[in-house]
Task: structure prediction
Amino acid sequence: MHIRCPLKRKMKQLAYFLTAAVFLLSCMTGYAADPATDLLMYLPFDEGQGKKAEDTSPNAFVGDIKNAKWVEGVVGQALHFNNGTVNFDPLKIDHPDEMTIEFWFKPDDEIEGGARIDLLYRLIGGGRPHITFNRGGVLFGFYFATQGVELEALTNYDKFEPEWYYFVGSQSKKTTWMYINGELDSEAEAGGDVRMDFGDQGMCIASNQGNGNFFNGIIDEFKIWSVAFTEDDVVASMEKTLAVKAGGKLTTTWGKLKSNSSRP
Result:
């Protein structure tokens, strides 16, 4: 005769509860990176007015906006650049051991070659990292470095349409990955600690160090982290942004963003 054990049943129920709780917590946190300790810069571009871009991370950097206007973004407001830039003085932060750069961008026009365009560069002089279209015959690349060598992760795209793209460049001590729209686009060996020259040379968004090679279009939700994202982190961060935009309707919103290619 089989006798049910109430204690065993309660222990099983508790195990189910704990498993569900861990799953729900992972969904709420989104990814392993901790904004309190790992977020070096976050520019939501939600000011909506003025000529300053304010970093809402603990570092609280402030950038100077030139030739850009406030428009609707992926979430809230964004900056639409017309031969413009956001310039930051040297950030005075140490080189992180790892790094992730993420943001959303939407070109005004199709890009499939032509003159060089810099989405991200240093304010002073040369160095790494930078994110660039049309460099040396390459359509698009994440140009990064270790303390010993300069390297690159190059796109497999053959053109970029005037629609929203979600970019992530993630660098660990061994490998660098470039993701576009939540999918792996390119991978390259790194082999050493990150070299990030923004600390000494400042940073400019949508232009190069001389405020040329302009990116004309919209940029939103710009972040720099001191950790390398996994694929799950990339997808979670992207979906978290889309969930805010759509109130939870991720597929509908992504389709709307991709089809809304008209200029603001």
